[in-house]
Write a structure and sequence with these properties.
The chain is α/β, with parallel strands linked by helices. The chain has helices at about 25-35, 50-65, 100-110, 130-140, 175-185, 205-215, 250-260, 285-290, 325-330, 355-365, 395-405, 430-445; strands at about 5-10, 45, 65-70, 75-80, 90-95, 115-120, 145, 155-160, 165-170, 195, 230, 240-245, 265-270, 295, 300-305, 315, 340, 370, 375-380, 385-390, 415-420.
């Protein structure tokens, strides 16, 4: 549905009930698209996410020569004609918008291509996002990558000639996507690649990448140490059909909704912490510490909250599932006692400076916030209504604060919180506000 520039959030006046089906994982969809493009036969992805980020990835693969067929109504993507990729005689222009996964994955893919010239760029904010760790390592493996603006950032021009292989190292401290991108294209190198980490990296998304590579027939070699990855050469094998899990980060908003409204929700097919491929499922554990009831079953996750229960502030390191920290931070004004969030310094270089932005918006709502480079400490104070939340073009600000806006602040259903630029959610969750309104309407009918 079309969204206005300013969207007042209608509060829930009754506890939420029922179920909500969240879209497929962006992280898995874009990784699977890349591996499908490198596979030996057609691949169909079921349960795929259709959003700005995944459309940019699919469009780029089409520009590179693959046939990517989309069935949005059926949440399905089919990648075929892989043998036609990288055959263009003229330079290929690729646009990645603000999609970090597409940006890093396509840079590595084009650098590993046997030939061709590829020009990659994004929106102005994408030109500020970290790329140097990946660029430096690809160059060390023989890639010709030219930064046509500022060194270490987009835009890039790649004159492909394949990768040499052998031992190399990477600094992926600013984004685990840099390492994931390298791992996925390393099998294309002329000889096996041995990658040593020079700094610590957030592991869950790297583990996701490794498990996905195994599903496409190319597992990593035996690790000599925790900080070394060995990648054999080879061709990915099509699994035929690959099912994408529901997005655990997108699910975090609805998992937290009963904390605001009371009631219960069922999220079908969502796997619990440690079961699926996504580390962000660990956010459910944080919610249980806050005071929610979380149950994992074969059919998905069930969450509930009785409004007679104490909502507790928590001290949590989010370094390994940082996309969900905004959900907890936005709801911290409702918790008893301070909430301390650490391990988030790297999020200052994502779609926006998420640490500073969150501190700014919470203070606007009357909260006491202490900000450091790597943390936020929020002491709840009486909420200030009538405010407009700036989203900074960042979908996670819009969705996190929308859940807070579901609180019946006035006690009579009047909106008290407005979201600016709610359409930014199209990046990963285009129908978020539609699903939220469906749940609110259902709550009125019960």
């Amino acid at each position: 549905m079309p969204l206005p520039e300013l969207l007042p959030i209608p509060p829930f006046t009754h506890p939420v009930q029922g179920e909500v089906i969240v879209p497929g994982s962006k992280s898995l969809t874009n990784r699977a698209l890349l591996l499908a493009a490198l596979s030996d036969a057609p691949v169909t992805l079921t349960g795929a996410l259709f959003s700005d980020d995944t459309r940019l990835m699919a469009d780029a693969l089409r520009a590179l020569g693959c046939n990517v067929m989309a069935d949005e109504a059926g949440f399905s993507l089919r990648v075929a004609d892989q043998e036609k990729a990288f055959k263009a005689s003229a330079p290929v222009e690729l646009f990645v918008g603000l999609a970090g996964t597409a940006a890093r994955f396509l840079t590595a893919l084009c650098a590993a291509a046997p030939g061709g010239v590829y020009r990659i760029d994004g929106v102005p904010q994408m030109r500020k996002r970290p790329m140097l760790g990946l660029i430096s390592t690809l160059r060390a493996l023989g890639a010709d990558i030219r930064c046509t603006g500022e060194e270490g950032f987009f835009p890039l021009e790649i004159h492909a000639r394949g990768l040499n292989g052998g031992p190399t190292s990477i600094d992926a401290s600013e984004s685990s996507q840099l390492l994931s991108a390298l791992l996925m294209v390393a099998p294309l190198a002329r000889t096996p690649v041995e990658i040593a980490l020079t700094t610590e990296v957030r592991r869950p998304f790297v583990e996701m990448t490794a498990r996905l590579m195994t599903a496409f027939g190319l597992p990593l070699g035996e690790q000599k140490s925790e900080d070394t990855f060995t990648v054999p050469t080879g061709r990915y094998r099509s699994p035929g059909v690959y099912a994408i899990e529901p997005d655990a980060t997108a699910a975090s908003y609805f998992l937290a909704l009963p904390l605001v409204t009371g009631g219960a929700l069922h999220l079908p097919h969502l796997r619990g912490p440690g079961v699926g491929l996504q580390g962000d499922t660990r956010f459910a554990v944080v919610l249980s510490r806050v005071g929610m009831t979380v149950r994992t079953g074969s059919r998905g996750l069930d969450v509930s909250f009785a409004q007679t229960t104490m909502q507790r502030g928590v001290d949590q390191n989010f370094s390994e599932f940082s996309d969900t920290f905004l959900t907890l931070a936005a709801l911290s004004p409702l918790l008893a006692g301070p909430t301390r969030i650490t391990g988030i310094a790297h999020t200052r270089k994502q779609e926006t400076d998420r640490v500073a932005g969150m501190a700014r918006e919470l203070k606007k709502l009357g909260q006491q916030v202490t900000e450091t480079e790597d943390s936020l400490e929020i002491h709840p104070r009486f909420l200030r209504g009538g405010e407009t939340i700036e989203t900074y073009g960042d979908h996670r600000f819009a969705m996190s604060f929308a859940i807070l806006g579901c609180l019946d602040f006035h006690g009579d259903g009047r909106p008290w919180l407005t979201i600016r630029d709610p359409a930014c959610c199209a990046k990963t969750f285009p129908h978020f506000f539609e699903l939220l309104e469906i749940l609110r309407q259902k709550s009125l009918d019960l």
